[in-house]
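Data deposition worksheet. Section B asks for the primary sequence of the deposited chain exactly as it was used as input, without tags or linkers unless they were present during the calculation. Section C holds the resulting structure in token form. Section D is free text for depositor observations; keep each observation to a single sentence. Incomplete worksheets are returned to the depositor.
Section A, Depositor: J.P.
Section B:
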Amino acid sequence: MITRFDLAKRWKCSTRKVDRMREQGLLAWVDLTQGRGARPCVRFRLADIEALESRMVMGPVMEAWGEAS
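Section C:
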């Protein structure tokens, strides 16, 4: 699992952008505190991130070939 800071560094964006994507439901995430406490301890599964990255890269390619899913 990776943190929001790690993901922001990986994607070369701000942590706020990662937060907005999570809040919009675009990123699957895990709360390590399981709802206890005032703030969640947010982590992202690397497999979920890699799958999203693959869709982001391959989506436009497949659309250009007429194979959008």
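Section D:
The chain has a mean pLDDT of 84.
The first strand starts at residue 30 and ends at 31.
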